[in-house]
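The record is kept unedited without comment:

——
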Amino acid sequence: MLNYMQIIVLSIIQGLTEFLPISSSAHLILLPKILAWPDQGLAFDIAVHIGTLLAIIGYFRNELTVMIIDWIKHLCSGKVTKNSNLAWMIILGTIPVGLAGFFCKHIIETTLRSAFVIANTTIIFGLLMGIVYWISKRKRDEYSMNWKDVLVIGLAQAIALIPGTSRSGITTTAGLIMGLTPQAAARYSFLLAVPAISSAGMLKGLELLHSTQVVPWKELFYAMIIAAVSGYVCIYFFLKLLPKIGLYPFVIYRLALGTFLLLVFC
């Protein structure tokens, strides 16, 4: 059972690192090891993921509403708009991670959760993000995406199942490879997280139903709210600051974190 300080710290970290390109899984797996805290457990993971999902829905509520309406209109009348197209791009972009999660679930949750893997993926994909940010053309917005863009970004999101990769980091990197601006790549990455986090939450929920774990509902509610608030704040400031600071600060952070993990745990 986590105490309230641990709940607050881990919930804030989940809310921030889910959307910053620095890997939430790396921080949530390794921080308890560093501080000798107990494992947060399946129920806590579900609660903070619901919190980050609420943060995305809350921040992009207007965009999501328009996309859903236009998508339904497209199904009913065949009318295509930029918002209905983006909705399809989000749906199609979710397929690779769904397939990868289904077929590779066991190895992802066991072998790939080691400190050595996390340290190396933190460094490797941090370097990749920096190189791509340096050489990319960055001209297109998310509404110009086609199936080729979605295939590349969707496959990148599937790779992000490896702890330490960072879902937001690698999908933003893939967006830059395809010529999106950093802001467009980040926005699509956040929107792409809605079905990804929803499906992951449902799968974890099914696991919880079949487990004997005691569920501390009050503590989980606090964790969800804290993750939602910190996630919303993170999205707001990240999208505001991204045009000014770029991605290099996150590249430097990832290199430092990965090096630290190699020195301490490997």
Observations:
- The mean pLDDT is 90.
